[in-house]
Design brief:
Helices cover about 45% and strands about 10% of the residues. With about 400 residues, it is of the alpha/beta class. Strands 1-2-3-4-6-8-9-10 form an eight-stranded parallel beta sheet. Strands 5-7 form a two-stranded antiparallel sheet. α3 (about 80-90) links the parallel β2 (about 65-70) and β3 (about 90-95). The N and C termini lie far apart (about 45 Å). The mean pLDDT is about 95. The structure holds 6-deoxy-beta-L-fructofuranose and manganese (II) ion. Manganese (II) ion (MN) binds near residues 144, 184, 219, 246 and 291.
Length: about 400
């Protein structure tokens, strides 16, 4: 790695130290595909054990201080007690994810269902999730709707949008002053003809109509192949409507693989747009969340690896020589401009990150440190019996 000037090193180090990546409670639980869910030893049996695993990821990476919850997968009797448990372990409870995609009543839709009684049931769940936020102290309500239709004519597309808007409005009006609604879009699955929130434009239109507390979430696995996701990032940042990311990666569809595993260059390009817009720090309001399923790989190491992948892409993006890039762009020097990005991308930032971890009193090698910690052996021995957590589908 080229010798960094002291000012560059200080700037990059400060930005990386301030980075915050939220992990997902469901990533620590069993998950799979419609073909098979492969159970693993040591998997949590309840939200308390999921939070404990999230705390271990933070202990070894130093940049994952919150864990997102999913309701009802993480329903407990006393959310304030769960928040206390998290605090004792050095983490906080993050975004609250609603779930209106697993109830039999929602076969033809949840908030978009033709049946007003079923819509009421769905909205009541969204409102329950805001109650949970009040108890956990969470800022973000994350909404993903599996709602859609499988055949042309199955339902009226515009009528479904009206129903969606009505449900979002009622939920938006329930939010507290410091709370936000993050609307997530997805091109398809489980709906296979039309999804009611299929793309960033639809999510953006609804968020614009709702107001400043409604923002768009970009799940990196939710686009048509070939979609330029960093373009969407730039557009939503420019509009002040980028609420956050569900980071993962994919080779084909919504594969929910480790972020950066399938396309590290895409992750770098996304973080480049974030750095360009000075939207990396917590003050930007952009929530950097992981939304992954570790179907065959050991879960806690996979989450640690994912956090490291985001750190590495971020460090590379922070190393882009902004002045050289700007000069080349202004001069119309296409190759020099592209080279400014590629030089940063091809920089091995791992030694720098290892140094920064050591400076922060962390083991420079979080994956190795976790393996040597004996934590897996401990949970494998302790977590015997009971019902392992999963998607409860
Ligand atoms: C939908 C999704 C959504 C979550 C779920 C776990 O595909 O990305 O963010 O609710 O995964
Ligand atoms: Mn998601």
């Amino acid at each position: 790695m080229p010798e960094l000037s002291p000012t560059t090193r200080a700037r990059v180090a400060a930005a990386l130290r301030a980075q915050r990546i939220e992990t997902a409670s469901w990533a620590y639980a069993n998950s799979g595909t419609r073909f098979k869910v492969f159970a693993q030893e040591g998997v949590p049996r309840d939200p308390y054990e999921k939070v404990a695993d999230a705390a271990v990821v933070h202990r070894f990476t130093g940049v994952a201080p919150t864990v997102a919850l999913h309701i009802p997968w993480d329903r407990v009797n006393d959310y304030a007690d769960l928040a206390r448990h998290a605090k004792e372990l050095g983490v906080g409870l993050g975004a609250i994810n609603a779930n209106v995609f697993q109830d039999d009543d929602f076969k033809l839709g949840s908030v978009t269902n033709p049946d007003p009684g079923i819509r009421r049931k769905a909205i009541d769940h969204l409102l329950e999730c805001v109650d949970v936020m009040d108890a956990t102290g969470s800022r973000d309500l994350k909404l993903w709707f599996s709602d859609g239709i499988n055949y042309p004519g199955q339902d009226d597309v515009r009528a479904r949008q009206d129903r969606l808007a009505e449900a979002l409005r009622e939920t938006y009006d329930r939010l507290g002053p410091q709370q936000r609604m993050l609307l997530e879009y997805k091109l398809f699955e489980p709906a296979f003809y039309a999804t009611d929130v299929p793309d960033w434009g639809t999510a953006y239109a609804h968020c614009l109509q709702l107001g400043p507390k409604a923002q768009v979430v970009i799940d990196t696995g939710h686009h048509a192949p070939g979609t330029n996701i960093e373009f969407i990032v730039a557009i939503l940042l420019r509009a002040g409507k980028l609420g956050g990311f569900d980071f993962n990666s994919r080779f084909y569809a919504d594969d929910d693989l480790m972020v950066g595993a399938a396309d590290p260059f895409q992750l770098f390009r996304i973080m480049h747009e974030i750095v360009l817009a000075d939207a990396l720090g917590p003050a930007s309001g952009v929530a950097f969340m992981l939304d992954q399923c570790h179907n065959i790989e050991p879960k806690i190491p996979a989450v640690i690896r994912s956090v490291l992948n985001v750190q590495e892409a971020t460090a590379k993006a922070l190393l882009v020589d902004a002045d050289a890039l700007r000069a080349a762009q202004d001069a119309g020097d296409v190759l020099a401009a592209n080279a400014a990005l590629m030089d940063a991308y091809h920089t091995d930032v791992r030694p720098l990150l290892a140094e920064l971890r050591a400076d922060a009193g962390l083991d420079p090698d979080p994956m190795g440190a976790y393996a040597r910690s004996g934590y897996f052996e401990k949970i494998r021995a302790e977590r015997v019996g009971g019902q392992q957590a999963g998607w409860g589908a």
